[in-house]
Amino acid sequence: MKIGILGSGLMGGKLGVLFAQAGHEVIFSYSRRQSKLDDLARRAGQTAASGTPAEAARADVILLAVHWSRLDDVLSQAGSLVGKTVVTCCVPLDETDSKLVVGHTDSGAEQIARKLPGAKVAAAFQSTPSEVFAEVFDARQHPGKASCVYCSDDADAGRAAAELLTTIGFSPVNAGPLAIARYIEPFALLTAQLAYGTEDGPDWAYRFGKFNTL
Ligand SMILES: NC(=O)c1ccc[n+]([C@@H]2O[C@H](COP(=O)([O-])OP(=O)(O)OC[C@H]3O[C@@H](n4cnc5c(N)ncnc54)[C@H](OP(=O)(O)O)[C@@H]3O)[C@@H](O)[C@H]2O)c1
Q1: Domain 2-196 is of which CATH architecture?
Q2: Where does the Pyrroline-5-carboxylate reductase catalytic N-terminal domain start and stop, copy by copy (predicted)?
């Protein structure tokens, strides 16, 4: 799969490196420092490169991974995403990353879908701190995987989200249509509270399953 990373920070940088290490083609974009994008591409290996958001947007699947306040900027730099599969991990947070600015009757994921008519949008990776990705990836061949919920209104985008989650080592949990992001995004604040608001360290993950499979 060719994956374009729009936003190469904690989420996009780490996930992109692991996607590339798993054999996907990855292009890192959107940072104020070109050297950071180049370093990520070097670390990720031969199947990775750095580029502009417009170049990243040529990939089959786009990972959208920016702070909510940067959304319009990165999308305008990416250009048309008509026909593309867009997996967003963005959580619609305020500047202090402490409060949701969208909720109850709408979600960040739905707002993104409305901004991108003609794109196939899924939400995934919103509810797990980036600090755990490397451990989940290293344990991907082991039984007892961590869960990660995703949602989409589009079957192709849902499949892409599930494939990306599986690539990292998560057991993907299909939570249903994109509107379920209204519940996933507040849940992301719960996992963030466990990760950053306790003294146990940030490498939290969770597991959902029917009781007899846990
Ligand atoms: N971090 C987590 O554990 C976590 C977990 C779940 C969901 N999320 C969500 O995932 C999304 C991404 O989070 P993150 O932690 O990866 O964010 P981040 O580390 O701040 O990375 C955001 C990206 O946007 C770029 N950027 C910011 N301002 C820019 C500007 N003015 N011009 C160009 N590039 C700019 C950053 O580049 P620079 O290199 O210039 O900083 C970086 O590439 C957010 O919506 C967040 O709520 C995060």
Answers
A1: 3-Layer(aba) Sandwich (3.40)
A2: 2-91
DSSP string, 36-80: HHHHHHHHH-TTEEE--HHHHTTSSEEEE---GGGHHHHHHHH--
For residue 31, how far is its CA from the centre of ligand 1 (angstroms)? 9
Which pLDDT tens digit goes with each residue over 89-142? 999 999 999 999 999 999 999 999 999 999 999 999 999 999 999 999 999 999
Q: What is the pTM of this model?
A: 0.98
Q: What pLDDT score was predicted for residue 213?
A: 86
Answer yes or no: is pLDDT of 67 > 90: yes
Q: Is 89 in the pocket of ligand 1 (CB under 6 A)?
A: yes
Nearest residue (by CA) to ligand 1, atom 10, is: 90
Residue 75 tokens read as: 């999308």
Question: Which strands, in side-by-side order, build the sheet including 2-6?
Answer: 48-50, 25-29, 2-6, 61-64, 85-88, 120-123, 147-152, 171-174
Contact 181 CB / ligand 1 (< 6 Å): no
| Assigned token pair, 145 | 């995987």
Backbone CA torsion sign across 50, 163, 60, 185 = negative
Q: Whose CA is nearest to atom 43 of ligand 1?
A: 8
